[in-house]
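Input sequence (352 aa), recorded before submission:
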Amino acid sequence: MKKSHPVRRAVLAGAATVSGIVLLLSMKPASDPGSAQAAGGQVPPAAAGQAPQGGVNGAVTGDAQQTQYGPVQVRLTMSGGKITQAEAVQAPKGGRSDQITASSVPRLNQAVVAAQSAEIDAVSGATYTSAGYKKSLQSALDKAKASAGASQGSGNAQTLTGDVAQTQYGPVQVRVTVAGGKITKAEAVQAPKGGRSDQITASSVPRLNQAAVAAGTADIDAVSGATYTSAGYKKSLQSALDKAPAGGSGSAQGAGSGSGAQAKTVTGSVAQTQYGPVQVRVTVAGGKITKAEAVQAPKGGRSDQITSSSVPRLNQAAVAAGTAQIDAVSGATYTSAGYKQSLQSALDQAGG
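Predicted structure, C-alpha cell format:
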C-alpha cells in the first residue's frame, strides 16, 4: 500500500478541524434571550403617553381641549395602574357634530382601553374631535402619572401640565417637572403666536420659565410688556402646582397655598357654559372639602348678578356635601352645571 505523504496528512487534518469548528458554530442558536431583550425584542417599549403603572386607582379627568367644533374632555377610570374605562365628558354637539360624536367617541374610548396609552389612531371623518380627545387624554395620563409617583413615595420627578389659560392674545399652558418638592423645569406648551405675539412670547416665556424654577411657586413677577401672557402663564402654572399631590415626592406648593401636609388645593378643569367658563378650586383635608371657590365664572351684564348670587351658595353646598352631588341654584342652571362639572374634575384629581 502506498503511504500518504506527511504534508498531505497535515493538510487533511487541518481541513477536518476547520470543518468541525464550522459545524459546531452552525449548531449555536441564532439568538439568545439575553440579546433579544437587549435589543428590545422581549420588552415592550415605553411609548409616550403610556398608562402609568404603580397602583393608580380611581378616576382622573383630563383638561378640556378646545376644537373647531367645540370642547373635548376625557375622563379615565383606572385600577392597578391600568385604564379600565375611558369616556368623553365633553364632546362637540349640535347639528352634524351630534352624528360625528356619536360615531367617533365610542371608538376612541375603546381604542384607549386597548392601547393603554394616548397613542391611538384618529377616527376617519372626525379629525378635530380625535385630536382634541387625544390631547385631553394625554393630560389625564400626565395627572395619573403624577399621582402614581406620589403614591409610591419615591423621589422620582413628576411632570404636571396646567390647565389652559385663555388670554386676550391666545391660550397659555404651562408644564412643570417637580422633584423633591421643587420645580426643576418649566415650559410653556402653548403661548400666544402670530404677528407681534411671536416677539413677545419669544422674549417673555424663557424669563417666566426661569422665574418659576427660581421661585418654586406661581408667585412670580409679570414680564414687562407681556402682561397678558404673564397672567395666563401664572394661572396655568398655579393649576399645574395644584395637581401635585400634597405630601408627595413632588408636591411643590403654589403661591399662598399654605395648606400644610394635611391639606391640598386642587383646581378643576374649566367647564364651558353658554354664558362663559366656570372653574372651581377646592381645598381638601382629611378626605373632606374645607373650602370651595370659583376662580372663573360667567360675567358681564345679567351674568354678574347671577354669579354673585349663585356662586357663594354653590361654594357652601360643596363644603357641606363633600362631593359634586349638589343641587343646582334656581335661576342659575348653566352656572350650576358648569360648577358641578369643574368641581368633579377637581375631586377626581384629589382622589376623592
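Checked by second reader. The first strand starts at residue 58 and ends at 61.
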